[in-house]
């Protein structure tokens, strides 16, 4: 986990080059903050920022090589180092002097800490500049946490807010909120304020304070649909519409839930247990637990029929300019 890298930042606070990669925005921001606050004599307002999608990297090099004013060291953040990933034709706005950057990496400034961020799933490791950057920089990967890692992080973060929760409640918060770490942190802060930063979090507290994510409501929608409760299904559906959810997006989420049910059923028959299924499917264990414990779980044949119907609905929704809400509503009223 990235927490191990955070500990190393404090041990050597004057590294000349950092490379932050990965797509988890919350971890990227937290890592940036820890590097900045861990640099002696530096405050947030002292940091200089460059967007490499708008500014050439030679401006970063020039600033790094300029001696700091009234300080021993300067911190520079160079965001969106897109030259480290595969080129996307027609999307590059800036031609970066890569040869100049390569030369600078061999002899970086001794009075600057330059933090390059590459918030992408993959870097192009075939490129010379990528190989050189990864060999010269301290690399910290801000990858999305999933499964038990995310649950552990929620519990640890709760402690930092002065509250506590057991594993089952932490799982429930993830299921209610979703796996977005930024949103989870905000909800923990809200809960801590409610409990006055002292106390144990319960499911009842979460239900009273935390809005359900669309994914959670889709599970409830799918569950009521398969249970045959049409009135409740339509009530949940209309609640989702009122909250701004689009029928096309809902169709995709419902299909995803049906596929999850199919995969869980298949792996369960093969003898996989809950944690193994979650790891294989790369989903949170609590989602798997809900599917496995669902008394309304339909047969595989019915799930496949529903999935086929949803594919037809998706095509119809994307090709019609009429009342899309009605298309999905009719699906919920049918019996498959």
Fold and architecture overview:
The protein contains 16 helices and seven strands. It is of the alpha/beta class. The strands form two sheets. A five-stranded parallel β-sheet has the order 2-3-4-1-5, with helices on both faces.
Number of E-type strands:
7
Radius of gyration: 24 Å
Q: Helical segment tally? A: 16
- The 3D shape can be described as globular
Q: Give the fraction of residues assigned to helices.
A: 55-70%
Stretches with pLDDT under 50, minimum 5 residues: none
% residues in beta strands: 5-15%
Helix and strand string, N-terminal first? HEHEHEHEHEHEHHEHHHHHHHH
Largest sheet: 5 strands, parallel
Order of strands, main sheet, comes to: 2-3-4-1-5
Keywords:
336 residues; 7 strands
Task: Indicate the topology.
Layout (H helix, E strand, L loop, with lengths): L1 H10 L5 E5 L3 H13 L10 E4 L5 H9 L8 E6 L18 H9 L5 E7 L9 H9 L1 E4 L5 H14 L2 E2 L2 H11 L3 H14 L4 E2 L2 H7 L4 H14 L2 H13 L4 H23 L4 H8 L3 H8 L7 H20 L4 H10 L3
Parallel strand pairs: 1-4, 1-5, 2-3, 3-4, 6-7
Briefly summarize what is shown.
The protein has 336 residues and is of the alpha/beta class.
